[in-house]
Amino acid sequence: MIDQQAAGLFAPGRIGAIPVANRIAMAPLTRSRAGMDGVHTPLAIDYYRQRASAGLIVSEATNISRQGRGYALTPGIYTDAHVEAWRSVTEAVHEAGGRIVLQLWHVGRMSHTSLQAGGAAPVAPSAIQAGDTVFTERGPERPSMPRALETDEIPGIVEDYRRAAIRARDAGFDGVEVHAANCYLLEQFLRDSTNHRTDRYGGSRENRARLPIEVVQAVAAIWGADRVGLRLSPITRATGDTPLDSDPQGTYGYLAEQLGQLGLAYLHCVEGQTRGANAAAAFDFKALHAAFGGAYIANNSYTRELAIAAIDSGHADMVAFGRPFIANPDLVERLRRDAPLAEAAPETYYGGGAAGYTDFPALAAA
Ligand SMILES: Cc1cc2nc3c(=O)[nH]c(=O)nc-3n(C[C@H](O)[C@H](O)[C@H](O)COP(=O)(O)O)c2cc1C
User: I need a surface site. Which of 48, 136, 218, 235 has the fewest CB within 10 A?
Assistant: First the structure.
């Protein structure tokens, strides 16, 4: 829990067991610049080091297993080479005074047979095909028809998260964030629109929340709950048109309450349609924060003014910025000075080299 005595967006504090220099987090940002084997190149070291003045960096989503991969050129955390590459990143961030947690990712149905071992079908709670786009070696493609996981395969998924958490620890991170947002595997289980199972992982909201909770418990057993966060996006349809849960407030509220009882470091919420307007009207995020009872990171189209208000009013303990961090490596300093922000070109968001990645200058020294 953040130390409330030191209020303000720029005040230091603590989130779970992690000390933070300010209340500005860098939101997780997939940049698709790793190798096809999921190993980062040295460019990623520069990229994260440049952004180390964030109070907390949440890494780009990182595949916990080959099966959990849905996009070419995204990093992994399931081989020794992945660990080595990430260790160079965490060391650079720490040398620059920053803190970084790894976002643990399994895409579930948002994958393609060409990305899976042996051309296998992606896995999901139920065999319902996603309408989104994933990136294969050939370019953008519709996700393949997934197959429903057998009940006895689910402990293996939890084990993949657990092993990834161990590797994240070996790579020197400050903690991990379980990615249960943006319509990937854990959110596919949570929503009744994508989970039509009849076993103990489907049906009631308690059953649909079971896998996310089991994953969090397994990961917390490695890290301690106070170094584990979780990300949710109750009302996003992601890049495709993934249907929402029939009762987002009830389903996500139940999960938040359970996570609070486990003593997680933080709950991180995308408040609205991811990358859409900052309009939380369709969902009561304050109620979600209250159900959780611990530290809360707010995200989605926040501006300087909205972020200051969110911290000062107690709505959030930290505010995460995504797109603004792409073109402003020194975002914290720019927000402190109320300086103008540079804009990134969306065509450089995913893939490529240094251009649009590590070539954004910091403000000239005053
Ligand atoms: C290029 C790009 C990549 C993203 N990758 C991830 C990701 O890996 N994991 C995740 O949870 N969200 C991801 N998001 C969503 C962002 O974390 C964030 O929720 C969204 O950009 C809204 O925040 P903003 O308005 O401050 O940019 C991504 C967004 C963008 C623009």
Answer: 136
